[in-house]
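Request: Mind sharing a record?
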Amino acid sequence: MQNINFERTILSTIIYNPEIYGVVIKEGLKASDFSHDFHRKVFMAIEELNKTSMIEEGMIANKLGRDFNESLMIYVLSANPVANITPYVKELISLSSLLRLKTNAASLLAMIESGASLDEAMALSKRNQHVDTRGSTLNIHRLSEIEGREAEFIGKSFLPFPKDTVSMVAAGGGVGKTFLMIQAAMRIIDEDNLKIFMWLTEDKVEISKKRAELIAKSVINRDIHEYDDKLFIAGSDSESYHFLEESREGLRVSAEFFKFQQSVESFDVIIIDPLIAVFGGDENSNPHAKQFVSLFTTWATNSNKTIIFIHHATKGTSTQRGASAFADAVRMIYQVEMIKPKDGQEKTLDDGMRNIVIAKDNYGSKNILRSSEVKRRLFPAQRHVPLIVNQVVSMPEIDWK
């Protein structure tokens, strides 16, 4: 069924925007990749029309003649066109290749069970050995043709994040990682004038708005309305879904991921809290974690998106929980920690401050901060709290009125 949905989306997008056909061909999509017979015929008609005429519904109907099915065409045209068709094409090619592999395996098994000789089975296997590289993401460049450049960062004056890749912020519950990232988003807007989307899946949007107002007024001394056209949020009232899903073929990218890509296409920075809310795989599986982060790394690189995940820490620590591949695959990790007082400092401890520790730094954020650990104000200073090692400390009480 997923194949059918991808096929309809691709055909609908081409019909409504014929110029995008060139992108489809560049990715290597063929009529044989379509599993639905009518869809295959429509694509073949589009191929012919692209050579001699215009690509539009009436011309497709004329080209197909008796093979044209108005009811099936309505289903195609009812699919929403997408701005970025490349992920849909790549996924359809992948699904098509997988189907061919399954068909070849079934043929080989049937031949063996029918009593075929080893030579006959090997001959069939050799005929079926065809590596489909159309969906390959391996782009080989001559070194002399590449223009070298340093890594770029956003939010350098507060908390630098590398551009166009994936980073992570990890902390335990109640430490204030969401507060930190709301403030970071505001400061990125102030400094870099970027458009930011935050999906704070665990909180109602009204709560997040109140937190943003508090931060703007009492921490960074700005008018909250200055962020009206740059900072957008979704919350727990939005439908939740996973970007990876289990299938009989194993873990695969869900259709919801491509819908999400389309819905946030206009944003420069995307912040998701927490990572696990949209994951869909086994949190302790390295292959699953690697596949998930790679999905976002490719998107970030190809579409110039800076993506930041907020992730829960292992209980009692500030280290991100789950598979180690989460940490291995992202380029930057900050850990947020409570500040533990030294002897004699209990009465002067500012409970609105937190330690921000660089746990991973592939691109040199440390050089910007000039330290691997900095203190940042997350909350207005309300009171002083003596901390005891191993004591569970809740978030400071805040007057929301």
